[in-house]
């Protein structure tokens, strides 16, 4: 009977053990540390199952493991039995599952999580979030690029979860978001204590080409290069250095963006307040060239006061050259004040005004008909340009090259670099123009020859050539041609061959052409004029007297 009961009890206990819930593989179970040996903790997870876990799985990154016999821990049951009959368990996987649950809740609630940077990977770092490993991109480590992340390794600090995917096991966190948030709070507090116009002390934190960032105690302000000094500052490093303490004035605060604009020159006296009194118009002063541009040069009259010498006011003679070929940076120059615009803080200066106008000087020293000598600087289709004293040019027009040749032909006799002489014919100071004449060097032979001759004058010429169409004659060295039709009033006498070379012939001047340098001459016109004069004095052709009678009477009267 007792034996039967024992068998029944055994069967009941066996059935009960079969009916008990056994832990499901892939779940987290509780266990108890029953021994520690060979760097492993032996854990009884119940259900007559034991498993082994490396001690390092109980340690946080960079810390020693904290585990002792009797401790209750949660582990992840990967398999109920391995080849040795032991349960396959993992403390790390249990922590990961626990961490994922916690992180998903924090991510949903937009809460911060705590973790420690423990490794470096391509593009960033690995962070332990209490069992789950997250990726920290390099750009999310700090508000500014971090060159050395060594001091941050292993430190417990807050992070913001940016993105997570449990199925893929991906978590992305940011340390920068935490810093920006706390920085924004700090900025808001500091900005709240600042006001525009207030003078404060700050430390130069960074220097760029356009200015410097000044730390005002938790918030940075921009000190632009144009607000550092009243004078021109080419680069902020000229007057500032990193780490230097400076006194600045708050110029503007943008409440929305929390940007602060600072100034140093605003705390100094403005030199422009005295410019008009110190630099009257048309006074000359010595200054230093500070900057050269395509359109002119800036000249510093005193620290903080600069004027512009426009390229058109730099030289009387150099019209189309770059200002850098006239002056150089840091050169001391004498300038004249041409205009002051206090509202726009502009001073217009002149460099050429400190020197006399070379055209005025030339006009004074070289009146008309003065002979000059110079080098042929340029040859154009309309004349020659001759270099003269004072670095100016004079022009000889084609028509002023020669008396005898066409200008187009005469200009072929000249080459660039030739030294030539000429006569000043006109100086126009306003138009900066000097007209020269080469042909006038020996005087105007035509004008001298015909100086007393005018239309209607009777002159004596010498025959130099007999041609079919007429005869060539010369008067005071000036050649002329009398056409056949002008050789006589009588058509029968209009024969060129009746004249001989060397004959002296009285002719009447019908035209004086200074441009072509020709005299219009006619024997016929002289005869007609003589007849008209005789008729007027001694009778009329209507009275029946012949021309011979009238001329005979005139001749007798002359006797």
What does this structure look like?
The structure is a single chain. With 559 residues, this protein is of the alpha+beta class. It has nine helices and 30 strands. Helix 8 packs across helix 9. It is elongated and about 195 Å long. The protein has a five-stranded antiparallel sheet. The chain has a five-stranded antiparallel sheet with strand order 8-7-6-9-10. A five-stranded mixed barrel has the order 11-12-13-15-14. It folds into six domains: 85 residues, Nucleic acid-binding proteins (OB fold (Dihydrolipoamide Acetyltransferase, E2P)); 71 residues, OB fold (Dihydrolipoamide Acetyltransferase, E2P), CATH 2.40.50; 74 residues, Nucleic acid-binding proteins (OB fold (Dihydrolipoamide Acetyltransferase, E2P)); 80 residues, Beta Barrel (OB fold (Dihydrolipoamide Acetyltransferase, E2P)); 80 residues, Nucleic acid-binding proteins (OB fold (Dihydrolipoamide Acetyltransferase, E2P), Beta Barrel); 93 residues, Beta Barrel (OB fold (Dihydrolipoamide Acetyltransferase, E2P)). 18% of the residues lie in helices and 39% in strands. Strand 1 and strand 2 form a beta hairpin. The longest helix has 18 residues.
Uncertain stretches: none
Domains, number:
6
Structural class call reads alpha+beta
Beta-strand percent range: 35-45%
Radius of gyration, in angstroms, nearest whole number: 57 Å
Largest sheet, in brief, is:
5 strands, antiparallel
Give the termini distance in whole angstroms: 209 Å
Q: Count the strands?
A: 30
Discrete helix count: 9
Q: Outline, from the CA principal axes?
A: elongated
Instruction: Let me know the average pLDDT.
Output: 81
Q: Would you state the CATH class of the largest domain?
A: Mainly Beta
CATH topology of the largest domain: OB fold (Dihydrolipoamide Acetyltransferase, E2P)
Question: Widest sheet: strand order?
Answer: 3-2-1-4-5
Name given to the CATH homologous superfamily of the largest domain: Nucleic acid-binding proteins
In CATH, the architecture of the largest domain is Beta Barrel
Give the helix level as a range of percent: 10-25%
Protein name: 30S ribosomal protein S1
GO molecular function, one term: mRNA binding
Function: Binds mRNA; thus facilitating recognition of the initiation point. It is needed to translate mRNA with a short Shine-Dalgarno (SD) purine-rich sequence.
InterPro entries: NA-bd_OB-fold, Ribos_protein_bS1-like, Ribosomal_bS1, Ribosomal_protein_S1-like, S1_domain
